[in-house]
Each structure stands twice: as C-alpha cells, then as structure tokens.
Amino acid sequence: MRDDALAPAKLDDPNLKVVDVGGGTGFCTLGVVKTVKPENVTLMDQSPHQLAKAKAKPALKGVTILEGDAEDLPFPTDTFDRYVSAGSIEYWPEPQRGIREAYRVIKEGGIACMIGPVHPTHPVSRFFADAWMLFPTEEEYIDWFTKAGFTDVKMTRIGPKWYRGVRRHGLIMGCSVTGVKPKAGDSPLVMGPKAEVSGKMNTNPFSFLLNLILGTTAGFYYFCLPIYMYIKNLVWPKNWEM
Fewer CB atoms near the end CB (10 Å): N or C, the chain? Predict the structure, then answer.
C-alpha cells in the first residue's frame, strides 16, 4: 500500500528535494528513499521519540531528521520539489493550515501528496471514527487543497486487495491526494494567526474516564475491523461475489 500511496507523488528523480511531514518512525520515508537520494530527503515530526526510531534505521542514514510543526513548517518558501505526508493529518488541529503550509514550502510546479484516512459511511464505523480521531471526507481533502491554491488536484483511493466497501468502513490509510503548485510564492489563502493550544487539562474524572473508554473502544474496533475483513475475504473471496 505504501508504494501505491506514494505513486501519485511522482518520486521519479533521485535528485528531487523531498520533505516528509509527520513522518514519525520513517515508514513513509523508507518508501521515498527507494527512488530519491537520502541526502535530498527531510523527515520532520513533532515527536522526538518517534524520530529516535527513524534515526536508528540504516536505510535512512543521510536523511535530514528534525522536529517541527506540520502547521508551521520551519522551512523557507519554495524549498522542496515534493511534499509528502502519510498518516499524520488526522492529528492536526487545523488541517487547512497544514495544507496551506505544504503549498508554501514547495517550488513552482512541485507536487504535494497527502495520504490519510477516509471518512466511513457505515453508521457504526462512522461513530467510532468520529470518536477516535479526524477522518476527513474525500470532499474535504479536495476542498482543502483547492483553497490552498493547488491546481490539478487528484484523489487516488488506496487499500489492500482484500478490502471491501471503499468508504463504507473507512480506512486508516484510505486515500492519496495530490496537487500541483502553479506559481512560486506563498499560498493565496490568507489565514489568521495559529490558535494557541491551552495547556489546561480536563480534571473531571468522569469525563476523563468516559473519553478513555470511548477512545480505547474505538481503537479496538478499528484494530479488529481489518482482521475481520481479511478473514472474510479468505473464506469468501471478493471475486466470488455476485
């Protein structure tokens, strides 16, 4: 699935300058360095613990690895040829701001590729998806890219061969969205200052326990769902369906 998700980014030149935003342990970056020289790749994430795991991977030797905020990238405008981000947008407080930053940091003609979950349509899956994390709709992805100024915005649905339903139950890695930066400079989208994140914790024990139970249940649901679908496909392969 990783190679399928990265294919729309057109990482077809070893000399491309690429940034992987929210790259965590470097799983997506490992796909990038298959075709791009490691010294031309930057991996950025907010978690030092995740980045420590990335630094320990021999295949990522030569990659620039640093901490940073996806919604406030520490790079000059028009720096990279490609921007990729996989499995990160669902944790962003303001996805539109992050995609606006993607536009800013790539060069004219560059491509941004956002790989993320897709919102389910099945009512039970939709309930757990909304309780667990951000699952954007396909329409939201397209709208965010378009508002940021990207042109030739395209969406590619991705998923394992045994997956059924496309959007019915959603997918943690459900789509790959790309856009092209038409001209150099900052994004035409004007946004106010980044909202301050409150450091206050919710001290209500009942509310905390409820959120913990709900989040744990949702996580377990989305752990079991692909196992069920995989086994279902073994017992009743998709090509047997009428």
Answer: C
